[in-house]
Design the sequence.
């Protein structure tokens, strides 16, 4: 079983749509969680951290369910520029920031 | 700031050749990471340095891979001899690690390696 699992997609949505991505992780000792964004043939970049109480950054909302070991990302009012791969990332908290990446969910937003 | 710098950006080599990838982390960062990304396995951590010292190399696939960090501003990842299955994008990332705090890792643009 992969340590961090995501639906690879692609998710094809029209502009303005709301889309949600889910992710599950296997290491129950994990303490911190993130969503990274990776554009085609580019490096990953931090989109947002995920906090236990849930957090929002503009059109993006992240949720964490520790009991189910489940993380989600909701994007409202999708823009063409949101087209990218979204990586679910877990810090295994072994004394340093050891990030374990999911293989990513691809999002395509069309006009 | 220039960000994390990697070279070369693309490398095509023949099986059996030595490959050296280079990374310059962001000035002031004390942690450096080497990752490998493939379609099948996604992004995998190969090795992590803190204050130029290798802390975790459990992700290094085999003895053909080695990494060094001779000073705070330079690191290399070497593959000798290279094999076709080493073809991937290799990313270097750096961060400022403080006790009890997870700070963002900044990735370089990557080196796309093709071994024929």
Sequence:
């Amino acid at each position: 079983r992969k340590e961090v699992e995501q639906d690879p997609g692609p998710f094809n949505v029209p502009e303005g749509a709301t889309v949600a991505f889910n992710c599950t992780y296997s290491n129950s000792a994990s303490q911190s969680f993130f969503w990274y964004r990776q554009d085609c043939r580019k490096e990953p970049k931090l989109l947002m951290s995920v906090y236990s109480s849930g957090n929002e950054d503009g059109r993006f909302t992240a949720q964490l369910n520790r009991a189910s070991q489940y993380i989600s990302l909701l994007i409202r009012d999708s823009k063409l520029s949101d087209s990218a791969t979204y990586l679910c990332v877990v810090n295994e908290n072994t004394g340093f920031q050891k990030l374990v990446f999911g293989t990513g969910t691809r999002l395509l937003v069309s006009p | 700031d220039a960000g994390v710098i990697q070279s070369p950006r693309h490398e095509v080599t023949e099986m059996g050749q030595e490959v050296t990838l280079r990374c310059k982390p962001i000035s002031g960062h004390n942690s450096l990471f080497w990752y490998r990304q493939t379609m099948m396995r996604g992004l995998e951590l190969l090795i992590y340095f803190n204050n130029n010292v290798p802390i975790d190399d459990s992700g290094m696939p085999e003895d053909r891979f080695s990494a060094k960090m001779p000073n705070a501003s330079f690191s290399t990842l070497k593959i000798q001899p290279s094999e076709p299955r080493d073809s991937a994008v290799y990313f270097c990332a750096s961060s400022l690690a403080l006790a009890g705090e997870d700070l963002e890792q900044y990735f370089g643009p990557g080196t796309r390696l093709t071994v024929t």
Q: What stands out?
A: The mean pLDDT of chain B is 93. DSSP finds no helices and eleven strands in chain B.
